[in-house]
Amino acid sequence: MGPVLLLLLVTAVRLTAGQGVDRPTANLSSIWTNNASFFFDKVIYTAGTGPDFRPIVLRVRHIVLRSPETSKGPSLGAGFICRSPSSDEADDTACHFAVFMLINSSDIIWSSPQVVWSANPNHPIKENATLEFTSDGNLILHDADGSLVWSSGTEGRSVAGMELTENGNLVLFDRMKATVWQSFDHPTNVSVPGQSLLEGMRLTAHTSGTNWTTQYQMYMAVLSYGLYAYVESTPPQLYFSRWAAEKKVTFTNGSLGSITLPAANHTQFLRFESDGHLRLYEWSANVREEWVMVSDVMRMYLDDCSFPTVCGDYGVCTGRKCICPSPSDSGTRYFEPMDGKKANQNQGCLPNTPVSCQEMQHHQLLTLPDVSYFDTSNIIRDARSRDDCMQACLNNCSCKAVIFRYGPNDSYGKCSWLTDVFTLQQINPDTVQYNSSAYIKVQLSPSPTNKRMILGATFACIGIIIMATIAVTLYVQRRRKKLLAQKCATFECQWNQDIDGDFDFDQLPGMPIRFSYEKMRECTEDFSKKLGEGGFGSVFQGKLDGETVAVKRLESAMQGKKELLAEVETIGSIEHINLV
Questions:
Q1: Is 84 helix (H, G, I), strand (E, B) or coil?
Q2: Count H helices, E strands: the chain?
Q3: Residue 29 pLDDT > 60, yes or no?
Q4: Taking the C-alpha atoms of 535, 536, 541 and 546 in order, what is their torsion angle to the nearest 10 degrees?
Q5: Which is nearest to 558 in space by CA: 503, 480, 483?
Q6: Which of 161, 165, 131 shows the shortest CA–CA distance to 59?
Q7: Does pLDDT of 342 surpass 50?
Q8: Protein kinase domain location, by residue (predicted)?
Q9: 3-state class of 410 per DSSP?
Q10: Has 552 been labeled as part of a binding site?
């Protein structure tokens, strides 16, 4: 990146010097809004590919380039750092409240800002977010929608001001100049010279200084008498450890605790990165003006295959090559490259069939001989033999794999189980002087025989259901016919059957309006008013649509069928005012 003009017009806050010491500070009861208009004429801005940065507190130093011995170190700032979304991202600009360092000469910036601390690494804010230094001494970060993102938690603790020290430590202090809160107690992914990591503190990996998302959660922590690096799992998996004489690790010129580092020729910083490496960077002013890596710190103790994510999930590291687990003895391939490219498998491998706890009867262990793992500390103490080790994994669905290390024979060894499987390591037993095999849990698909059995049983069940349905239907129909035959002793049934069957009124000339038997019974009040008798039946009085009518009912439908048809045909041919 080429040089960028430094606009030294920072007046967003009052900068004061305390007791003759260079202490850039901010007064209380201040609020800063994260937008360009608020910082207009008060912002250092990098053109080109670097992120925008909007300083609130600034410590400027003029560095004489190409003359490191006369340099005082980097310029430092605390403020908003913003990364514009790339062309394939739909998200808004992502910003952080951060401490950053710059390399500048007079009015020229020679580097993009390097973030050394962030208040909100996992919760980026948007344009118009606000940082407020309240009157009760609390530093609060709100997003543009007003939601609380971060707080220093220092309300009511007599905070008098905020300063940025010469080594990049953001400090809130009281009226006695005592430290109330400091960013060094809450490290993110960077350590700077003079910074100590105390027991319980950790550096957490992020993708970059301004893009904090990462696929794997990896961290380096200071625990009792040591520095340890883990990849997050249940439990966390350890891949690096280094003894320390004290319950803290301090980054100084030439060392990090008991770890020796290259001596500084210029400004340095350590960054714990998303691939699990701890790298030392230094500003190079002699040949080209840029940050260069001068040491991959853990590589002094670990080879490439010892890093958890070098080949991704289930990937097998063989030197500098990544492969997916080999097929079984029967030739079944259980894993494929995650990115679909067999030539480039460093993104990890996916199981062809995900392991399901609901089908544990179909679990099997895929044997990978001469394969080990970076962490074998999660030991199954009751499993001393290879068979016991494998069975222990098959009996527990949370077990994704087991590593069995042993000596001359596999009747006795150390069994370690994994709830998450990261990069596996191909080993040479002659070199490492032990034997090791990995057993990866895979999900079997039902065999063709089992499929045929399942299909046959399914069809048999369907056949039984169909036959039972037919039998029940026939029984119901016969039952109905029997009941109907019993009911047909009554006139209503005979009449309804004949009407629905052989009585073809539509073929009669002059066909009158047809009424149902139920309608006739209703209009005659159930044939209650008898007027007289005629051939084959009786005549009853009734009312139909408000008019009085006479209704003739045959006493036997089958005996009077022809006569009824004759009467209907005769009546249908008569035109009379009282005939309906």
A1: coil
A2: 6, 40
A3: no
A4: -100
A5: 503
A6: 165
A7: yes
A8: 525-580
A9: coil
A10: yes
